[in-house]
Amino acid sequence: MNATLTLPAPAKLNLMLHILGRRADGYHELQTLFQFLDHGDELSFAAREDGEIRLVTEIPGVPHDSNLIVRAAHKLQQLTGTSLGADIWLNKVLPMGGGIGGGSSDAATTLLGLDHLWNTGCSEDQLAEIGLGLGADVPVFVRGHAAFAEGVGEKLTPVDPHEPWYVVLVPQVAVSTAEIFSHPLLTRNSKPIKVRPVPEGNSRNDCQAVVEQSYPEVRNALNLLGKFTEARLTGTGSCVFGAFPDKAEADKVLALLAETQTGFVAKGSNVSMLHRKLRSLR
Ligand SMILES: C[C@@](CO)(OP(=O)(O)O)[C@H](O)COP(=O)(O)OP(=O)(O)OC[C@H]1O[C@@H](n2ccc(N)nc2=O)[C@H](O)[C@@H]1O
Ligand SMILES: Nc1ncnc2c1ncn2[C@@H]1O[C@H](COP(=O)(O)OP(=O)(O)O)[C@@H](O)[C@H]1O
Q: Would you say the ipTM is above 0.90?
């Protein structure tokens, strides 16, 4: 059997998210602050000589060829012209449609992992560009550093916000990103802010009001976590998060909410686990 390469695919949080306007193509101009979590999926890769891409562990409800992992692998094959393929195993830990970027992160880990395994030598710029074609959130996972993002999320400025511990609550409801971005009541006229200093005090999420209105489960999670610390929505939800100074405090709060809420505790991280692991392989 070929040697396997196992790599993490961390979650992200949007520490703030402002919507500045809507472009002619319907996409929204954003300003958002991405930070990674030391918590995520895990992917393993083994090269195949016959050029086939096979996701061995499929996700129920996501057809094989629509999975962002398979799509990322095909795009990298096309760009590089490699004759190699891969068997890929996914250990799915992150909730789907939660605004913590699991699918995008899986795609980025696939691009970096297969580029390493296949020895195709792509630059980070090339991989970020392929990633953008798969989703607005993929490039930040390819770059692997916490970032202030503008445009539709592709113009990235690396930043180093504070790295607290977070409680992330996972309301058991799927929020459609497209539905929120087409909501008539969505705030779309936030004033642009400057990148530096890192906008920690200016940290609202413009999607939160409409998500709270449409999804009572999310409002409930925000109210419950809000009893302990400032609680906020990540991306278009459904997940909500709050920061704590240490793990013990975060664990205690999650335990107090455990009767009615699903969630996890994770440390914020400005260098993604994926990049830390890749550096250790070099
Ligand atoms: C809102 C954010 C913030 O990080 O996160 P999530 O909540 O999805 O994690 C992202 O920008 C989401 O990125 P991503 O999930 O990759 O979105 P895409 O698949 O590119 O777009 C899904 C749909 O959302 C709308 N969309 C998305 C991004 C954007 N800047 N403007 C939009 O209007 C479009 O209608 C699009 O069809
Ligand atoms: N590898 C993958 N992991 C998760 N979702 C995927 C994947 N590939 C495709 N998808 C599709 O992308 C959708 C959004 O996934 P996800 O990235 O988890 O949400 P979000 O962007 O809200 O964080 C899923 O509902 C699923 O249909």
A: yes
